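Preliminary data (for renewal application), IPT complex.
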Amino acid sequence: MSSRTPASGSTGYVEDVSPGRGTLPPRAWYASSDAASLSLNGGWRLRVSETADAEDDSFAEPGFDAGDWAEVTVPGHWVLQGHGAPVYTNHLYPFPVDPPHVPTENPTGDHLRLFDLPGDWPADGTAVLRFDGVESCARVWLNGTDIGEFKGSRLPHEFAVGALLKPAGNVLAVRVHQWSAGSYLEDQDQWWLPGIFRDVTLLHRPDGAAGDFFVHADYDHVTGEGTLRVDSAAGARVTVPELGVDVAAGEPVTLPVEPWTAETPRLYDGVLATAGERVPLRIGFRTVALDDGVIKVNGTPLLFKGVNRHEWHPRRGRALDLATMREDVLLMKRHNVNAVRTSHYPPHPAFLALCDEYGLWVIDECDLETHGFVEQDWRDNPVDDDRWTPALLDRAARMVERDKNHPSVVMWSLGNEAGTGRGLTAMADWIHGRDPSRPVHYEGDFGCRDTDVYSRMYLPHAEVERAGEGLDGGTHRRRGLPLILCEYGHAMGNGPGGLADYQRLFESYDRLQGGFVWEWIDHGVEHPALGYAYGGDFGEELHDGNFVCDGLVFPDRTPSPGLIEYKKVIEPVRIEPGDADGTVRVTNRYDFADLSPLEFVFSHQVDGLPTEERRLAVPSPAPGESAEVKLPAAPDGGGAEVQWTVRAVLAEDTPWAGRGHEVAWAQGTVTRRAPLPAATGARPAVDGDRITLGPAVFDARTGAPRTLCGVPVRDLRLDVWRATTDNDDGASWQTDTRYGPLWRELGLHRMRHRLEAVEADGDALTVRTRVAPAGREAGLRTAYRWTSDGGRVRLTVSVVPDGDWQVPLPRLGIRFGLPGATAEDSVRWFGGGGEAYPDTRAASRDLQWDARVGELQTPYVRPQENGARADVRWAETGGLRVDGEPEFWFTARPWTTEHLDAARHRTDLVPDGTVWVNLDHRQHGIGSQSCGPGPLPRYYLWPEPAEFSFVFSEPGDRPRG
Ligand code: IPT
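Predicted structure:
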C-alpha cells in the first residue's frame, strides 16, 4: 500500500489542539459610529470535498475560476443548502473518540468571495477581517496570502488585513472543515452544522481607533449613585449627555442614576471618543454581588425565571437574522421570562444587545462541552489535559472580551457537561481575574470549587426542597452558595409537568434562586415530506431522534402549551382569593418593579360567559408586598356556575408588548353549578336487534350505543390508553420507573373488552364488562349504566380494578367515534381553554370556548398524546352535547389514539373520517422524565374504584337540576 499524500500540503492544523494562528487578540465587540465597515455576507461560491486534503490551495489564488462552483448564502450552513446533510447527536461524538484526531471523511467547504472596497473606503489606517462564527475550523486566505486559521465555532476571530487589501478585486478564500480538534470541545446536544454561520465583516480601523474597551458601570443601592469608568486607550473621552458626564477614559465618575435591571432596563446612551473613532455606548448601571449566600443585583436577591436558549431557525439552523433574535426576546418578555442561559455557547452578539435593551438577565455560557467523554468515565477529557488548556483559555477570553460591556450579562458560565478538570479551573481563574464583577457559573462540579453559584440540572422537587432547607450537604463552599437549576422542566413533546410545584419551592426558600427551563425552541428542520425533521431523518449513523425537539416553542416559534403554562407559573403578579369573602389579594412578585405599569380588570362569568370587563382599582404594592381589593357584587347565576376573573394587563404600550397585553390573571368560584339531572323515567325497550331508551338506540346483543339523540356513535367504551408522550417514555438512561414502556409491556394499548351482561330492566340499561389486556390477569370491571328522562340520556360508568395492578393508568374515561365528523367541525365547551394535564394545568382558564376539532390538536413535532381540556362542564360537537358529573377532561381528534401513537412525524397524521372523542374522568400526570424526574406522586392515576357520569343531549339543551 502506498502512503497517503495530502494534495494540499499540511492540514495538520485541523487536528492541532491549539486555538489557531494569525488571529488578533480578543476584544470588545462593537459597531463604530463613524469607522467604515463592509459586510461580506451574501452569496459566496462553494465547493465541498469529502476530506480535508482533497483539494490544494489554488482556489485561494487571485484569478482562480470558480465559475462552476455552487453558490451558498453566508451566513449559513452548507448542509442546509443542499450540500450534504445535518447530523444530530445528543452527547455521542459522531466520530471515534480518539482525541485530537478526527475522521478522514471530513466534509470541507471551500468558500470564495470576491469584493471591491467601496469608493469612499478611507485610505488611512488599517483594516480587520472579522468572522463572528464558523463551524468548526477555518483557514483563511486574502488575495492569495495565507492569513491563518482558527477554531472556536461560536466565537469571533479577527485578522489584521489592511496591508493585503486592494481597491478592487479582493479574493477572500475560506476553507471550512466540519471536524477538527475543536469538535471535541463542541459536543453540545444539537445538530452538527458546518459552515460560516455568522457574519463576515471587513472593518476599517482608523489610526487611533478604540480597539478594546471595558465599561464598568456599578450601582450603589444605598446611595442611589452609579459609578462609571470606561477603560480604553489613553486620551479617549467618555460622554453621557443625559448625565452631563464628560470624563477621560479610565477616570471614574459617581453620580445619581437610575439603575439597570431586567425589569427596568434603563440604558444611558454615551459615546467613547478616541482619536480615531466614536463608539456608541449603551450603559446600564448595576452591581452583581454574592452576598449572604445569595446573588443580588443592586442589593436585591434575584429570582431567575429563565429559559435555556440555543440559536435555532428551522431553515437556517444557527444562522439567525436580527428579526429572529428579536422575536425570541419579545416572545420571552411576553411570556414573563426574565432570564436566559445562552446554552451552550455565546450567542450572536446582537442578541445580547437586545437583552440589554428589553431587559433579560443573561448567563453567558462559553462554547464548551465534552459530554461524549462520559462514555469512558471522562478518561482523556480535554478539560483535564494541559495540552488543551490554551484552547480553553482562548475560548474563555473570546467570550468575556466580546461580551463584557453588556449590562444584561450577570454571570459567566464556563460551559456545559464537560466533567471536571484543571482546564476548567484555569478558565474560572482567568475570568475571575479579568472580570471580578460577575459570578462564575458551571454545573458540572457539584463541589463548586471554581464557581460562585451552586448549579444543578433536573433535580427532583424533593431534592430542591432539601437544598432550600440547607439539608443537602456538599462541600463547605457549596453550602454557602445559592442554588439555581441551570436546567429543569424538560420541555420535550407534551410538557413539562410540575413547573408550578418547582415555582412554589423557588418562592419559599431564599437559597433557591430559580431556574432555566430546558429549552427554548425545538430544533426541528423544516422538511417537505415530514413537516419537521429530527435526528435519524437524514440517515445518520448515530443519532438521538427527537431529543432535539424539546423546546417551549415549536420550530416556527409558535408557543407550545408548555410556554403558556410557564408564563402563568412565573407571572410577576399573583392574584388569589383574599381573606374576606368577595375580595382578591394582589401580590407583587417582581424583584424590583412596582405595579404601576399595569392596570387591573375584572369580570364575572355565568356558565362560562363573561360579563362586561371593568377596571378594578388596585394599589401598587412594593415588590414582595400584597394589597387586598374588594370585588363588586357577583350576578345571580340562577343555578349556573358563577366565577370571577381578574387580569393584570399593560396600561400603556411598552417596547415589548402593547397596551392591554395580559401579564397575569386568576379566577375564582362564586357559586358552583347545580347538580346534573338524574335523567330517569324512560324505560329501555327491546325491539329486535335494538334497544331503545329515550333518545338513545343500542345494539341489543352488545349493549353498545348506535345513536345518542339521533347522532350515530361508534365504539363507545372504556379507554385507558394514551399515545405515550416523550415524558411517559422517558430517557433510556433513567433509572427511575418509566411508565410508558411498562404500560406498553402490560398491554394497555390493546385492551380487550369481554362482555358479561346486557341487562335491560327497570329504568336502566346496564352493560357489564371486564376490560383487560391479553396475557395478564389484571383487569378493570366496568359497568355502563344508561338511563333517560325521554329527552336526555345519562351514562354512569363504574370501574373496579381487579387483579394485581403495579402501574398507574395513562387515562381513565370513555372514548367513542362520531362517524362522518371532520377536523373542520366545531366544538363548543365550558371549561379549560388550552391543553392541560394534571401537572400542566396552571394556565387552564375557564370560559365558554369555541374551536374546530383540528385546532384542538397540539402539533408536537413527534406526534403524541395532546390536546386535553381540563375541568370541562359540558361540550358540544357533532350535534351532541355532553355534560359531565364531575367535570371531565375533553379530547377530540380526527384520528384514533392508535394512529397518533404510531405516527412519527406530523405528516403521518391523516384524518380518518371520524372524530374520536375522549371524555376522561382522570389523566396521569406528565412530569419531565424525558430527561428529569417523572410526575410527582400526587399526579399519579392509580387504578382504584371510580364512578363518573355523562349526560348526553341535543346542543342548546342546558340541563339544570
Ligand atoms: C442536559 C444537557 O446539558 C443539555 O444540553 C441537553 O442535552 C439536556 O440535557 C437534554 O435535552 S445533560 C443531561 C444528561 C442531564
